UniProtKB/TrEMBL annotation:
This is Aspartyl/glutamyl-tRNA(Asn/Gln) amidotransferase subunit C. InterPro entries: Asp/Glu-ADT_sf_sub_c (IPR036113), GatC (IPR003837). The keyword Protein biosynthesis applies. It is an enzyme of class 6 (ligase). It comes from Paenibacillus chungangensis.
Amino acid sequence: MSITLKDVEHVANLARLELSDAEKEQFTGQLNAILKYAEKLNELDTDNVEPTSHVLNVTNVMREDVVKPSLPIEKVLQNAPDEEDGQIKVPAVLE
């Protein structure tokens, strides 16, 4: 598998990035180098290796939830940039 200039242009378009021709060439080379390096993993014998999602055992280290009283709405709204009808008002993000 290799990355083409067209692939880089496509991803840049999706990310809304404007790349110069030099940058496109640079990223194409860098991405191909990464893929070439990752292909070395195919050389490993993994037939007797058990699949895992993590190298180490993962345990939940979070504290137990404790019910506590909430802040009064008046105190919360003091930090809000704008407020309307007891709610924090923010600018619209949809066109």
